[in-house]
Each structure stands twice: as structure tokens, then as C-alpha cells.
Design a protein that fits this description.
Blueprint lengths: L2 H21 L5 H11 L5 H23 L3 H23 L6 H21 L1
Helix pairs in contact: 1-3, 1-5, 2-3, 4-5
Amino acid sequence: MTSDRTAVRRWGRAGALYDFVASIAFVTPWTAGLVMDLLGVNRSMPTLLFATLFGTVVVMWSIARWYRPEPVLIALDTAGRALFSLWFAWALLNGQTKALVVFLVLELLWGAVQLRALVRR
């Protein structure tokens, strides 16, 4: 394995760890509700349901990338980060909580780091 491929694995795993840490609180309705209250997000039942579905999928996806940081999975994740960034920006432009700026910046950062590692391999 070349050092460039190792960089893809290293940055892919780092991105997976970030996603796990950032999303684990959204896996249950109780913890997601607490985080949503802290972020000032509406806690309606449909919003809570989608937050927990989102949290569960992201945590499972992060575990898959941690154990199999293959270039194709990291490339898919990088594309997903670009889409997440687009939706965060859209939500911000439509008046959602400014707390999303932190998530937007982190998605852009991880996307750029992973893309750089992928392009260099």
C-alpha cells in the first residue's frame, strides 16, 4: 500500500470518527431532543423522528468507513459531504439556526481533506 493510499485510509478514518462523535447523540429520541434544545431547533415529533433516523444512519455509515476505509467508500462519503454542505447552506439562507455554521464549516473541512487525499493517490 502506498503512502498516498494510506493517507486516504487515515483521513477516511478520521472523518468517520468525527461523524461518529458528531452524530452519536442523535441516535435516540431522548438524546437527540436534548441536543436539539441546546441548538434551539424545533422539537416536533416529525423533526425528532428524522433526526434520530439521520443519526442512526450516519453512525452506522461512520462505523462502516472506520472498519473499511476503502477509497470508493471515502469518495462516496466526500460526495455526501458536498451535498450535506449544500443543504446546510440552503437551511442557513432560509433562516435556520446559526449553529449550523459550525456543522457547515466542519463538513467543508472534512470534504476538502478527504478529496485532497483521494486526488493525490
